[in-house]
Amino acid sequence: MRVQKFYDYAAFKQYEESEQYKTRQQFEQSLLAQHREKDAFKLGGVCKACDVHSMFLIDKAFGGQETEQGWQPNWRERILCRCQLNNRQRAVLHSIKDSVHQRQQNNDLSIHIYATEQATSTFQWLADYFNSYQEVSCTGSEYLGDDIVGGTLQDGLIKNIRHEDVENLSFADQSIDIIMSNDVLEHVNQPHNALQQLYRVLKPKGELFLSIPFYPHAQTSVRRAEMIGGQLKHFLEPQYHGNPISDQGSLVFNDFGWDFLQQIRDIGFSDVCLCHYWSELYGYLGDPQYYLWAYKSN
Asked: How many domains does the chain have?
């Protein structure tokens, strides 16, 4: 998959002022105008997760909004394939597939992928897809509680669910090649500690694929809440996101801006960037859509 890499806000802003950006915006608005009177419609394309032609579902679920021009879908969380993966999930998995295939071409015969999720359709796809690859292993985990030892397996919504605290991972140093973390770090009290752990367990030449709710017009991240001395302190109105293993949801501790990329660099990662993706064919709409990517050089 071709992505555009942005290393700072200035480069991203330049893209937003480009003809390419305007053309994509016009295409999306034209597409919505054609279906203004409908609550949902489908768009033909190719899903790079399940590798088949798909009729992607675009609807009002997950926060679709009514505007003067008509309704706007939540592009990030919709454009659903029949494999039940949405826009952002398919894009990240597409990139991870490309990374694994590139490593195989470079004769990397043992690839370990770790995902900071396990009770999700995204991880299930990851594990199922690479199950037939003898040289690729996949490990997922969920946070199950403060009193559980990292690496412990328990039975819950799924069998043998692994507990990991991303601020204190149980994996050995330099034991993982690729890490996928989808919308997790905003729920972590101290994301800096989590980044240190992710860096520690990655091998040299390891890659981090990281999606978070990112605010591309914000230079500075915002602290919404913090655990201080075992007590939870709110700085802003509490905000919760869905949690696959809890009906209570997960509290959002941080809203991330461009300074977060520098925080990742300060840990030791190199080539840290915002990866922007868009494709009518692959159903990657909603310009701009993005994930973060970071590389551990040594």
From this structure: 1
